[in-house]
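Write out this protein's structure.
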Amino acid sequence: MNYNFFTKNPKNTPQSQPIPGRESEMVQGRSGGYMFAGDIWQMVRRCLLIGTAQSTYYAGKRELTTDFVDTIKNAIAQNPRRVADEILYASDGRAINNSAPILALVLLSMGEAPEAKAAFMEIFPQVVRTGSHFYEWLSYTKSMRGFGKVIREVGRNWLAREDVKGLAYQLLKYQQRQGFSHRDALRLFHAKPSSEDHQLLYHWVVKGWNELPSQIPSEAMAQIWWYEWLKRNPEQTHEAIRQGRLTHEMAAPVGKMDNAAWQLLFEEMPIGAMLRNLGSLTELGVLRGDEPANLDRLEAVLHNREYLRKARIHPIDVLKALKTYQSGGSLGRSKKTWKPVPRIVDILDKTVELSFDAVAPTNKVFMHAVDISGSMGSLVSDMGLTCCEIAAAMALATAKAEKNYEIRGFSTKFIDLGITAKDSFRSATEKTQKHNFGGTDASVAYDWMLENKFKADVVCFWTDSESWAGSKHPSQALAEYRRKVNPNVKAVYVTLTPYNHTLVDPKDEMSWDFGGFDPSMPRLIQMLASGDF
């Protein structure tokens, strides 16, 4: 049936209409087009993986945050244990940052059922892993619910963990965040020391050391001792970094930092800090094109999949680091400028690919349809990247894992973006950005494949799922493609915004909607293609 999918509204803008006979299944999106209502668990995962820290083209940050809270609360009322599992899934390096899982954790603690509070207490230490997470959780808790019995118990337990050395590291590295200090936290939760090391640590947090102990009190307190020693001997920064294994957060505020000090820090720098400080390290001369030893170390660390996974380095974090570094300081929060080292740009580009999770090629044929419409030009969270850039990167990562593919872009036309698996991620995002404008009609991908008799095994859409232009719904175009070209084609829609709708007909057992920027997306799509999903 060739149903006219839009009419003209008073402003002469196409506005989609629901498919006849399916009105009860469809909702009107923010663009005016009609999509299928999303399943609540689909929305939960999408919210947790994407978050709401930035406005989108069609919705403001406040509206998206309200939607997030309502979605998570409704899910908690239905099944708090499943919400807890989704929080853990997102927090384990799959969300673009840990903020959305932490916010959902607070909402879980507010659930009325005993199961909600039990689940909250169980997963708390797996989500709130660092001092930075702890302070962020405190901030959300203070603004949303207050510090009742359950909150005080998990807070005390976090501050009384058996690994005192690890706790000392966190409290030293993150002495204050989000309007809270480590001293505030101890006083708020009335943490009682369960060992001599806990007693020493708590005393340092609350009162500090007026006098430096003549000897390091214990192994657990060694790093704090060297930090205090450096405060009193700032000219001995190199010695304190070497002996105390201080991080830049510990040494820089109290020591005298020169190039040699930064070189020492670089040699032991955690992978996350390394990504965040590439520009500074280049500006300082630690990373130079004529210093291959440091570049070799950088490559060895960033190209180690085990390191990337253990540190929960998200591909989008690497893509952000690549874009920021390549800009020479014109992007991002840093006020420093630097001349990018070409080899570092190449190292980062390969790191983006390695940070995605893929398996051996399936030998299936893939069509990647990247949404290049105007709405995809919105920035994602604080990444400094647009939805369009991220869509291109994720499509390329999936294509690089396979042999048979095409990557094209859709708005109201379906065009060749000139992207192949040999492209770097930076070139792929640049090519996509050149075409980032126009309306949104996902059905044009199927129309092009019909016209060109392109027989795909899997069609992957990377989109915000706001398809409003054109003469038919994407699900109608897919049905036609199955009738005329490939009845067994599978369709995957990867939605990159936290909206509560989908382009997937819930009655279609051969179409899937995946939400967010999950690093395992290439592997999931490959498994689906091979029938292992």
